[in-house]
Amino acid sequence: MIKHLIAGVKRGLGLHMPGRSLLIVPDDIFLVSFPKSGNTWIRFLLANLRFPEQPATWANIDRLIPDPTGTTKRDFDRMPRPRIIKSHECFDPRYPRVVYVVRDPRDVVVSQYHYHRKIRKIADDSPIETFVTRFLAGETCPHGSWGQNIATWLYTSEGDPRFLLLRYEDLVANTARELAKVVSFLHLSAGPEQIAQAVERSSADRMRKLEKTQTDKNGLMRGSRKDLSFVRAAGSGGWRSDLPVPLVARMEAAWGPLMRHLGYELSMPSPSKTRDSDSLGILSGSTPR
Amino acid sequence: MLTQFKYAVEYVLGLDHAGRHFTVFPDDTFLVSYPKSGNTWVRFLLANLIYPNESVGFANINRLLPAPGVLSKRFLRKLPRPRILKSHEPFDVRFRKVIYLVRDPRDVAVSEYYFDLKKRYIEPDVTLEQFVKRFVAGETSSYGSWWEHAASWIAARHTNPAFLLVRYEDLLSDPIGETGKIAEFLGIPATPERLGTAVQKSSADRMRKLEKQQADQWTGTRKTRKEIPFVRAAASGGWKESLPRHSVEEIEVAWAPLLNFLRYPLHTPELDNKTVPAWVRTGEPL
Lengths: 289, 286
Fold this sequence. Notes:
heterodimer; A: alpha/beta; Rossmann fold; 13 helices; B: alpha/beta; four-stranded parallel β-sheet
């Protein structure tokens, strides 16, 4: 009851995190991804691009590129517009413009596994097999499964001029080129020099260095284990060495067509049944129930 | 500032409207649809089935089959569980068990047009053709476009055993059979007699009569234009007469893949081969 009362007072003062009740305005921009898909890196990139006068750090990122679950309503109300807002939510029709970042789920699962060890959500020696099972079922976070999250966005919005799809892997391979896409999508005024500066200021090295001194200044890792870092490999394809083959097979069996659609090559021979676009049973005359 | 303070007080007392920010329990079931797709009819059907001794009407439907959008968080918290709740939300991952009611969008467009006139959401001189343009763009509803709504649910859930897809048109042609399927999905024991009684008590005629008596006792009809009824045609295929040809094409060109998937025959035959792509299957592994 006391807790509830404090929460009420915070609401009165605008000091609560708005979460899903965030008031969205028509010029808002949302940076959406499933967790552990490079969202924080791109927040740094966009923050450094948009606010070159104050380099992004772990301490100020929640005010530069706010997070409805980590930034207070008051800070939201005071931000310069248009706001670029971080989100992990599944499809939301209220988001006016969306940059969606997708990452190979085989790398996402490894990254989330280590992150959950870091924040003590799972035990240090918790087997990755168990984690993959929960990951496939969408039980490791409140934002649906990887497949659900991306499919709700992709199927509702792919091809819409208000929707930009980026792949984390392309961002790693050529950060400046992909960032230029965002710049033109959002009509930001930033030339090649500014883009290069933003890339430089958001490098994995710099983010790692900052992390060492600012761990407790950011809600993503406050109170977490210091022996594991938030910025880990910052690369792509790590699953090839980190993820046991049978687990790779399970993930590809669950999301093969979706992964292929996104350009993620499958390592397992795919069952011939799922090759064609019309072979999943969902299109056959009998469905829906 | 004052509104924020009022909100804070309501929040502490649990009297703030639940909207989409209420606590969802894992044993909740949601009756989800895009607006104007037969949701209120199914609420009547289920309420009559579950509460055979209640006199179900517009005056008590918000209590019997609650709509979080218009009720307080406290009311929702105090409901006996498992709850069955009405919703118009596009995909919400927190909803574990879902009855998804879908209706031919060409009929939905016409129905929503008259409803928006009734509610005075649109000016009386807006034509149906103008309305459909905005309908297709998703500008007539805060729940997204019909496409976005259906696509988000189907992409995320259609292979999930806790997801029951019901077509409004099937419900019309076989109300007892389809209501039976819903009852079975909900685990409600229902004999053909009980189903028959529920269907009868929820007939369009009876609902029209109740609407006349209780329009002022329900959030959906209070303070609306009384000369336009809430329970209108209660039929399918009305679009063939009332929807301009151009508007029909607009809807079909925009949404052919899902129309085909949901077995709504197209007026424009060259769109027949548009299908839902294979990757629209996200596999919660079965």
